[in-house]
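Bumping with the actual sequence this time:
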Amino acid sequence: MRISLFIGILCSCITHFSFCATITVPFRPYPHIRKTIYQLKKTGTISHIKLSSLVNPWQVAGIFATYAGYLESSDHFGYIIFPRKQVQPVLHVLIAHKIEPIVMFEQTISHWIIVNGSPAAMYRFERISDSDIGLTYWNVQQEQLPPDNAISLDTLIIIAHPDNIYIPLGITLTDAGPNLFLPTFYTRKNIKVTDNALYMLDLAHLFGQVHLAHIKKPMYYAIQPLD
């Protein structure tokens, strides 16, 4: 009976960690419709456009972001996925070229700050469920940067020049599930993914994995982070 109960608790814990709520950030290339239509009308430019796309593809992969102590980069399809670490469906998003950690001791960070003179932009994402119309939507608005440049750890920070990431303001329809699927972020052609990645190498040591200690008790196993 005890063994069956233990297995049930263990399976419950595995299910909880495997299927926890997430925050998804989608990136897409910024559409240049007018320019593309004009080029397609010119004779002999279709092959040139195809070759240019192969040599200089739109950069949606390799964009770094940090949230709640996690560091991730966008995959080949332009998605970044974080575990959701907040209850309220309100998320602050910072687009910053350079950030610095304020360290309390060793590798424990109090908060981030924006490097003085570095370009940055702050946005507020709020998911609202309107019972009158039966719809759920994101309301995205731009916010003022904090006067002291201090950024809390629960802010989703994207490492890029704010001119190279376009975030549409206003309302975007979504669903009311536990996962937060943000509206699409658009990358402009001048984004320097390689430079941003090299910059994040200097901060990568602050995002080490948490090592767990397993302690055997008379009736169960206890798990806690190592110091």
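The tokens above came from a reply further down the thread. Residues 7 and 13 are 10 Å apart (CA to CA).
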